[in-house]
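[audit] Reproducing an earlier prediction to check determinism. Same input, same settings, fresh worker. If the tokens differ from the archived copy the diff job will pick it up downstream; this log only records the rerun itself.
[audit] input (152 residues):
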Amino acid sequence: MGSEKINPEQAFMSMMVVWFALVVSQGLFLVLAFFIKPELLRFDFSQPLLGGDAVVIGALAVVSLSIFAASFVMRKRFITQAIDGQRVELVQTAMIVGCSMCEAVSIIGLFLAVANDYPYFFIFSGLGIVGTALHFPKRNDVQAATFKAFEP
């Protein structure tokens, strides 16, 4: 497998398919929340932002923001390694790891919706969807990891 060359266009297209599937899965979390607890999608904004269990929700909000930020750090690190080592598969790994970490933020929101009846769970889902959208595959990253730049 190490000696096989990966076609950059095929790598980019497969990344697009995986990215789209991960975006769709984010939306499915909202559908799942609707089927589990439809009353949460009535958006009752009269409750406090941190809900009934402020410590748990606050702690999970900090964890979620940390995961969100770490997803971009990890993506950047993988892309740097991909370009330095000319390994296009690390560009794919960067996108998948970044999107998966953002998906974890949405899962935390789903957990809060189901376990704590937290009416603002959609903030976590929105953050996860935005993060996944920001991890959109970039053709330039694939090309940079495929072709070494020649300096004069």
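[audit] rerun output stored. Observation attached for the diff report: The chain has a mean pLDDT of 84.
[audit] end
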